Amino acid sequence: MLRQDSNDDTEDVSLFDADEEVSTRSKKSKIRHPVASFFHLFFRVSAIVVYLLCELISSSFIACMVSIILLLSCDFWAVKNVTGRLMVGLRWWNQVDDDGKSHWVFEARKASAQGKKVSSEAESRIFWLGLVTCPIIWVIFAFSALFSFKVKWLAVVTMGVVLQGANLYGYIKCKVGRRTNLTSMATSYLGRQFLRQTVVKDDQAES
């Protein structure tokens, strides 16, 4: 605390509150997982760059196609299993039960007991920007290949749309599902409170 002088107009100011505010802002803007953030963009951006420059890099269509599909596959695995969990606390997967039925599971990490966010704002922006922008680019590539009659590239761009679109759909379901669960919990709680009040009023009226 600053000591107040009798002949001065200064007032007591808590230095700890200022330090806490600065630290909170730095945590929000800080990238906690730089390696995950790098590879979240590296594979998908590299696949787009190779697709655009494939004719300059190599004259072999097979080599370009294999390189792009390999980058897309690495991106799909990394985003689905690593970067989504670390950067935004979301995860999705498919599992088969004992009856042989396939089920899609969408999971969101719970907030800490202190109410702190599971990810920083900087990482969240990087994650969603890369997740949304790149599938849109592959959709543009698909229409371009279709209208320019580049049939041999349709399989490649379709693979890009499917793999990156699947991750986009999965994480949107995770995000929306978490809000839906909170909404349903709030609705059921209000419903129980309303029913309890109605029962109490009926009991009072009968008595």
Automatic annotation (TrEMBL):
Pfam families per the UniProt record, alphabetical: DUF846
Domain of life the protein comes from: Eukaryota
Keywords of the record: Membrane, Transmembrane, Transmembrane helix
GO cellular component entries: Golgi membrane
GO terms of biological process kind: protein secretion; vesicle-mediated transport
Coiled coil: none
InterPro entries according to UniProt: TVP23-like
Annotated transmembrane regions: 35-53, 59-79, 126-147, 153-172
Membrane topology: Multi-pass membrane protein
Cell compartments where the protein resides: Membrane
Principal cellular location given in the protein's record: membrane
UniProt similarity note: Belongs to the TVP23 family.
Protein's name in the database: Golgi apparatus membrane protein TVP23 homolog
Protein species of origin: Terrapene triunguis
